[in-house]
Amino acid sequence: MPETEAGGRAFKFLMRIRRAFRAIGIVVVAGAFLLAASAWFMGSLLIKPQNHTVTAPAGYLAERVSIPGVGHVVSGWWVDAGNGTPVVLLVHGLGADRSSMVPRAELLKARGFSSLLIDLQGEGETKGEAITMGHRESRDVIAARDWIRMKVPGQKIGVIGTSLGGASVLLAPQPSRFDAVVLEAVYPRLGRAVENRIRMRLGFLAPVLAPLLLMQLEPRLHISVSELEPIRWIGKLGAPVMVAAGSRDQHTTLEESQELFDAAAQPKSLWIVEGAKHQDMLAYDRQGYEEHVVAFLREYLSQSATASNNKRSMGCDGVIVQ
């Protein structure tokens, strides 16, 4: 009898363990499903087009232009500073449109530069099926550059790209055929960029959620993660390049910007904006922007620019900290 009771107790104990493991399994499966569903939802939001009407600021003088692109028309504003002036293409970041680049265009015009401001595909007034983190957007950069060449043949052309805009410049076929390139807060690798942004909001979940987001690129956009690494192409730009980085930027860390700068070919310069986060660097430090970005463009886009003036008074290592 005691042996029978002991056996019964052991059987009940084993059944309790089995039920506990079954419950744990259900919780794990449900948690994994919820995590995957959340990642899929986040991915949908990330690539969803953000088209809307773009209105120019009151009194802003610019010519509305429509540029033939690949499968769509690229919307833009042309700001003409006069005959013979160099041109700067202005390319906005993720979630923005060409109106965010108006202050740069105004500053450049006052300093003797014409400019073209565009909406990247899927944002502003340029149609697109999905945001592709620079892959399809790079085609808009090419279309805009070629439009400028036809509009003002023989003039030097520079480009300022902020975040996604700068990535789009680098992900286009190289050499870039620009005469000067300014990259503001541009990530070297999409994988790290995604993880940084998740870590800022969800902390320890970043290493888990980032891969779940990145694995959606192939089925959703038919793009591999390796195709979205701007750092692979910066050394082939074929143009002087300035990398501008905020010292407190958590989206694209200073370490990442330094890595991007290190991979670039000469002539190059690195402007570290002390105290700046992932934000509009012109709005944060207008004086510094004029002293470094505008001066950089003036040097390499002036008609008298030659290889002999590639070494500026910014220091032999090309690094500026302000």
Task: Describe what this molecule looks like in 3D.
By secondary structure, this protein is an alpha/beta fold. The chain has a domain at 48-54 and 61-189 and 229-306 and 314-321: Rossmann fold (3-Layer(aba) Sandwich). The protein is built from ten helices and eleven strands. The protein has helices spanning 2-47, 102-110, 137-151, 164-171, 190-202, 206-214, 217-221, 254-263, 281-284, 286-301, and strands spanning 50-51, 63-68, 73-79, 87-91, 114-118, 123-124, 157-162, 180-184, 241-246, 268-273, 319-321. The chain has a nine-stranded mixed beta sheet, sandwiched between helices. Helix 2 (102-110) links the parallel strand 4 and strand 5. It starts with a helix and ends with a strand. 42% of the residues are buried.
